Fold this protein.
Amino acid sequence: MSLPAGAVPGRPFGQVSKASMQSWFARLFSFFVLLVVANLLAPPASAHPHVYIDMKTAFHFDDQGRLESLRITWIFDEFYSAFAVDGATWTGSTYDEKFLSALAEENLKNLAEWNYFTEVTSRGVAIETGKATDGISTWDDETGRLSLTFSLPLKEAHTATPEAPVNVRIFDPSYYISIDYLPDAPVSLAGGSPEGCAAAINVPEVEQVWTNLPESAFTDPNSSLGANFASTVTLTCKSGKS
């Protein structure tokens, strides 16, 4: 992945002048990406969130009651939101539709390298996901926050059972980006979900995580620090459609 002109690998994004980020797409998601890259190149002990995302996730099923995709919504913090839309045309109620559409497309293009920060497993075995689709960027003028919503399909539909539930974690490995579920309706089951399905969230206590982190989390450059803070959504279905 190439860095924007003027960016220096290994330096925090705060040291990159805004003037060097003036190409249209570079100013959009590259800010988001650079935070990750900078932290991956820095000692793990220095990692802490610089971007904050509120999230909600919807589970979608096929006609056989198998999980087939996730519909994920991220609501970015006010600082990143203002940066991302800087220079966009204001229409009186929102920003230019073409701008927002291109922004969503570019964001998903860059996120693909990190599998959209999404991990899907069952019994400890990874469930492969495909390419994100139907990306939409929206602006909430009341809150001054930008949202990105996209669908992430499983490569093969998967049945969640009590014996083999499906676990979903969405996190930035570097922990430069903090991704947390909204307190209200964070997870939902889309219409047509099988009878007896339920999704439960396990949210780690941040202070306790910091206290109990192993030394390797700070000394191992390959440490996935963000995984320790990731909430886990567990999907279980007692019965499915035939």
